[in-house]
Amino acid sequence: MNRKMKEALREAFEAPAPAHRQDFFENIPQERVSLISFMLSQAGYIRKRVLVISLFPVLLSLAGACVLDFDMLWAISAFMPFLALSAVTENFRSAAYGMEELEMSARFSLKSVVLARMGILGALHLVLLCLLMPLACIHSIFTVMQTGVYLMISYLLADVTGLWILRNLRGKEGLYACMGAAVCISSLYSLLRVRLIRLLYRSGFAWAVVLLVILLILCVSETKKMVRQTEELRWSLS
Amino acid sequence: MAMDLREQYDKIYRYCYFRLNHRETAEDITQETFLRYFDSVCYRERGKSLEYLYTIARNLCIDEFRKRSSKQTAETWKNAAAQKSEVQNDAAMQASEMPDDADMEDETLTRVSIKRALRRLDGESQELLLLRYVNEVPVSVICSMMGISRFAVYRKIKNARKQLKEQLREEGFE
Description:
Chain A is mainly alpha-helical. Chain A is 79% helix and 0% strand.
């Protein structure tokens, strides 16, 4: 069929212009995304170095357990605050680089993005902790449970402090303060390790568990406050 | 398959208008087609978007036509006919207002003759010509939409073209 004929056919079948096309496309429903695909899409935005840092304590414990035949628990526990720091700062990336407003106008709310990334990193670190617990206690005087509590206290202490700092200090200053806090906690853990070990090993495991529970409660509370703060920011910016 | 949704909206609307001959209903059906299409993410991900869109539109038009034939009052039909004649009158007015140019006159005559020739074809032939040459729907999509083989689609399109040519010849066109 030639072009002229096609043109003539097009004109013959011409319909009156649709009246509500623009309105329809302005209010077009968004494509629904399943939770798994949303989480996977967010995992792609986590910086690779955060994942590499996460592997470091595992390598350290493997080296201590298999190659050096040496108690590396103190080194691993001293590294845990930096692991927490990497997770906390990753969640505040948009705030640190002043990109909150842009992220808030994006398809997914900042709150859901931050929660998704926190969930991914939290789950990853939990898996790592489960791997570290048996490895770190090979040459240690602690049992697997005691090792877990020892490492968790170090991690959560840095986590709670980091979240509190980033809630109160905006921008890059918050990141620097967070880094300082992680260094302090790590140094404190290294310096006081003999006393901490004595506390945990001799004075009773119960106190350590109580401390862990307190830190867990504080961590949940700080996370809630952080989420609320994200919502408040959204309202004040819209 | 990445589709320009706005372009497809116009094409689906044109198809619905051809089937229903009523502007508001055609637009309602078009929007309903797109809403149903957006509702079924899993189907789109399998990559047969265009087939799916046209199948929904076709089925909705058939449903609407059935509903209409059972409920339609003479008045509504009268209104539709009045609307159509209004559109035709507008077209005639536009044609009469055009500059007195021989080429323009020829074009208008051709358009009117093609419309008249098309009206004499059966519904299926008209539908096939619209889908294939106006909306430029691929043959594979027409096949699955109408539930017939590729060979049958080619044969039917060929017949439709032949009939159209015969009608145009009767109108005095070569």
